């Protein structure tokens, strides 16, 4: 019996909260907010972050649909999965069918016609407010070598990162407001905290938004629901394809998801690294044309999002002629943890936990290839 899309849609109706929670963990916050409030309310976008960009529609249990102020509207759960997981629509349908235990005897499901996402509405006043807040927040930050930035340095040391110099894209804010949405759907000020603030840039190296890590004076993460947040962006900025460029690469670049993980990679390997913030954004990273060798330091996680994103980026970079190498931490993942990353490796094993032998071999091979490319073959040489 052929499994029709209408059959899958019908089976999914009324069950989307469970389906989305199982297939897209990055939507947990939005699902939690919808269930707590009794009606969907805005939370940070699961793709580009921020505070209040995304919410589910009021009939999300039935349809699974939602909307992001910057990314657009997604009328049902299949479209949401396609967007948030970077799946094809066929992958979304097959994953939902598998989750629901539906089977087809006639082979793969054929995808439906492509849809055109609804264009998000642009609020000029909101854009102006967001741009002002981004500029004022960055203007209030201090360089890492300012004595008042001690809580940020303590935080990095407690994460196992003793740096001789902190990248310029990382700065310190002494009293950054932390806002949250209460059960009445009102945005309230919870308090002001020290914070590490990172500049995230677009693919063409222009400022996109700010990533904030809220801290205590002692240098530990603040006791707030989400100690790490992205600020909302004006509608004319695009973080997709961008990163937090912690190092300045020549022809060789490392990438990792988290800021601290990328810093650990730089300490262990001396290779410039960029942080992509999330697995979704890692998959979309746009590389500069000058990059010849790319090292992807993937997270090992239970949902395979990190591994899948690393593979997607690797395949795209290979198609562009880049020499790509993906490194995955050894398992197993600790029982109490969702993942294991290269910061964990650095803290547990130090430099020795990194594949230095392979990195040296690759460096030597590249050097040899470069030398050979400058040696003219005998029949091209002029007689002396």
TrEMBL record:
Region of interest: Disordered: 225-245
Classification via InterPro entries: DNA_primase_Znf_CHC2 (IPR036977), DUF7146 (IPR055570), Phage_T7_Gp4_N (IPR013237), TOPRIM_DnaG/twinkle (IPR034154), TOPRIM_dom (IPR006171)
Residue span(s) of domain DNA primase/helicase Gp4 N-terminal Bacteriophage T7-like: 40-78
Xref: CDD domains: TOPRIM_primases (cd01029)
Chain segments annotated as transmembrane: none
Keywords noted in UniProt: DNA replication, DNA-directed RNA polymerase, Nucleotidyltransferase, Primosome, Transcription, Transferase
Listed name of the protein: Toprim domain-containing protein
SUPFAM superfamilies per the UniProt record, alphabetical: Zinc beta-ribbon (SSF57783)
């Amino acid at each position: 019996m052929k499994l029709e899309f209408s059959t899958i849609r019908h089976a999914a109706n009324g069950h989307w909260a469970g389906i989305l929670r199982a297939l897209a963990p990055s939507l947990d916050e939005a699902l939690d907010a919808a269930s707590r409030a009794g009606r969907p309310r805005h939370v940070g976008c699961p793709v580009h972050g921020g505070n209040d960009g995304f919410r589910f529609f009021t009939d999300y249990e039935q349809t699974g649909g939602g909307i992001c102020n910057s990314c657009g509207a997604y009328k049902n759960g299949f479209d949401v999965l396609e967007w948030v997981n970077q799946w094809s629509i066929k992958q979304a349908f097959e994953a939902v069918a598998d989750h629901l235990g539906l089977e087809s005897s006639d082979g793969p499901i054929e995808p439906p016609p492509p849809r055109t996402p609804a264009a998000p509405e642009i609020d000029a006043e909101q854009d102006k407010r967001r741009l002002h807040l981004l500029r004022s927040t960055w203007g209030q930050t201090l360089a890492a070598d300012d004595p008042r930035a001690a809580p940020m340095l303590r935080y990095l040391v407690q994460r196992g990162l003793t740096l001789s110099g902190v990248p310029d894209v990382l700065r310190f804010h002494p009293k950054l407001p932390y806002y949250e949405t209460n059960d009445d759907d009102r945005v309230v000020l919870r308090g002001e905290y020290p914070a590490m603030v990172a500049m995230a840039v677009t693919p063409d190296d222009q400022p996109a938004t700010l990533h904030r890590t809220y801290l205590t004076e002692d240098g530990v993460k603040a006791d707030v629901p989400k100690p790490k947040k992205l600020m909302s962006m004006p509608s004319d900025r695009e973080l997709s394809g961008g990163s937090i460029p912690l190092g300045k690469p020549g022809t060789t670049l490392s990438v990792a998801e988290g800021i601290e993980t990328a810093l650990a990679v730089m300490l262990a390997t001396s290779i410039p690294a960029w942080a992509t913030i999330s697995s979704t954004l890692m998959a979309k990273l746009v590389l500069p044309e000058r990059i010849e060798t790319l090292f992807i330091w993937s997270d090992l996680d239970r949902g395979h999002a990190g591994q899948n994103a690393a593979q997607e980026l690797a395949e795209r970079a290979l198609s562009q002629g880049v020499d790509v190498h993906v490194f995955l931490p050894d398992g197993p993942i600790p029982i109490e943890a969702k993942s294991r990353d290269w910061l964990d490796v650095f803290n547990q094993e130090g430099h020795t936990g990194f594949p230095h032998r392979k990195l040296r071999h690759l460096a030597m091979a590249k050097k040899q290839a470069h030398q050979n490319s400058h040696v003219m073959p005998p029949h091209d040489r002029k007689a002396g």
